[in-house]
Amino acid sequence: MNTKERLFAAIEQRPVDRMPAMTYNFHPYTSQWQANEDGTFSGPSGYQPMMDAVLESGMGMMPKVGARHRSERQERTHSQTFLEGDAEVRLTTLETPKGPLTTRFVKPAGQPGYYVKSLIESDDDLQRYLSLPNEPAQVDLSHAKEVYERLGNGGVVHLGYADPMYAVAQLFDFEDFCIRTVQQRSLIVDMIEREYERIRVELARMLEQVQGYDFMFCTAGPEVATPPMLSPDTFAALVVPYEKALVQMIHKAGQTSAIHCHGRVRRVLDQFMEIGIDALEPMEPPPQGDISLDEALEYVDGRICLMGYIQDQDLYRARPGEMRAKVCAVRQVVEGRTGYIMTSTATPYMEDPPSDFVCNYIEYVRAATE
């Protein structure tokens, strides 16, 4: 089996010749890592030894890409970026028929960014948002197809699509959203159904463009609705019916599907199976997660491929030899099984990675591919 065949065999619950493994969105094929035309790496220099190890080992790769959207909503949106101290600030304004809405995003130097102001902070903001036309965007997959062609048999391209619940949740401060799911459930459901109608058309337009390709369609939104943030009953109401319909569209087009979900999944594993996804990633070990890999594999019983279980934080903190031991422990659990792909649980994000992280990542890559 080549790398891609092995990965898809695990996703489709077919036998594999050895444990599949791949990086988590670490690869030389998009501008995030400043790829050269020949596929070599010229990103941040601190990551060069890691990329060398990945390419030398033949480890699978999982590029995460999205469609390029063109919509009236984009035409109504404009941003300005400026510095405040060592932090980059992006102020975005969305013009609506009833007045402007704004978000404020802050990215400290060398760190992940975060929103300090949400689009909807009041009922007046909500009415402004609902005054927008709900026109689906035109989608362009030329960039995704370019990454697909460059990756070849080296892995599986995850092609992102929007989740209706998350499309609503991200409009609010998350605490406000959680409160509204209790106090204004019918309003939230109406908003989700409105977003679903737009997303359904956009997904159909994506699927029309992928004949002859084998992408893995992936959405990241449902993780914000898992316990302890929201209850399993809320997950069932706000996520399952909409994702189930979208996944059916994906399967009808001959493509595979995945949901990205950090954290505790034990109490909603049955709902992921009801949705009908092919894969769930990135499974996290306790204490971030709440179920062992052995127990999770037994529970899903060949209905979902599980990806992950190499905790990102361990790559920063492990002592020499510990990552190899973690890989060996996982290999013992999955020996003789299919339906599992080893990955780390996050994309490397620090602009200048610590030396311990680099050493541990290389140890992980070499152990996973031996």
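^ that was protein a. below is b, sequence first then the tokens
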Amino acid sequence: MLRYRHPVAPGPLRILTADVCVYGGTSAGIAAAVAARRLGRTAVVAAFGRHLGGMSAAGLGMTDTGDTAVIGGLARELYDRVGGFRFEPHVAERAFEAWVADHAIEVHRDQHLVAVRHDGDRIAEIELEGGLRIRAAYFVDASYEGDLLAKAGATWTAGREGNDAYGETLNGIQFHETHQFRVPVDGRGAAGVTDEPPGEPGTGDHRIQAYCFRLCLTQAPDRRPFPCPPGYHPDRYELLRRYIEAGVFEVFGNNQPMPNGKTDMNSHGAFATDHVGANHGWPDGDYDTRERIFQDHVAYQQGLLYFLANDLALPQEVCDEARSWGLPRDEFPETGGWPHELYVREARRLQGDVVVTEHHCRGTERVDDPVALASYGMDSHNCRRILVDGHARNEGNVEVDTPAPYAVPYRAIVPRTGECPNLLVPVCLSASHIAYGSIRMEPVFMELGQAAGTAAAQALERGVAVQDVEYRALRECLLRDGAVLDTS
């Protein structure tokens, strides 16, 4: 069954100890654990779900690379292992499983954070559902949501800052022409369209970019047809019907080829697999709230594809195109071919001593403690869909290239000085909304995970807070292990 969180039965108290505890079985989390193990430290991974690798093993096979020349270290090793930057989900998952097996990393699955206990200002142990407690010298929050950093008391934020917060131009409310309606479409009375005021461009708010499932599709004869979700109703897609009637059908416009006749389908255009505006309660939501949002995304996206393949009021060529695709038999067998993980593009973000901003992305502000290079464009998907003069209009999408690779500083993956001295955060790092839109790519997450695991090992060796790790020693170790830290 498709679930965000599988229930865990209460069990007896079990206490584990390790040098490094990684919360989150994402690509960054596995990279952090591998890095720590290679430096002789014990590591345990508490994975929220049942699968390892995060989105890299959940349908995101078309890797958002930017400049591939600056992808190094464990990230490069992983991509070499799966045969490049385009791969089938099960191939990636198998690679992550092999990594943990090769390094004797203890992994516990279906582990949902309940509480964090402190010894002074340090994290002493985390409590997980089912009775497991993990005590460690250092902790890595490698989750996409930042649940550990929040419960640990680190300063964080979510949503969009206003442009005035950091002197940016692409933050806050944004009306751009990418992934926008190409012709006017009446949005009155259509599901998912609100009549709230547009707001002033550049103004901050609580909203985050849309989520979707990254579907692995195929046209193989034995493909699974798109399922009809419980409670399906075609009226949910009335706006899409109007858009198609106006002459635009682009839902499959970003369906990238993968090996063995498969694809990675991402959202494309004005109305597609992104469930715009439906995820704003996710970042700080409790598990029940997230389960509701997760199931709503399942129903929306399954219903969308079922609608396109079966609605008799649609043009025949639209139905024919949709019916030519389906779910592979050999991917995600536990969930009927549907990915097990929702693409959480953005949730909480740490607020550290250094916040990566648009200025870093544009190369106008530099740092002296790089632990990874990022190069993908500043990419935020739409945040809402509103009425403007009776027509539907999307808001929030930004796609602006970065002129060159830029450095992500070590200080962005550790809390502020004086907070949580044994916590590292390689995924929900310290960045503004729009800068995070560039950094939030799986290769960078793995590179930052490697930096986090390396820093934890060095901090343990010297008995210091993560904020006091000697950068020169960290840099030397990362370079020895294949990291790319310089743009020249």
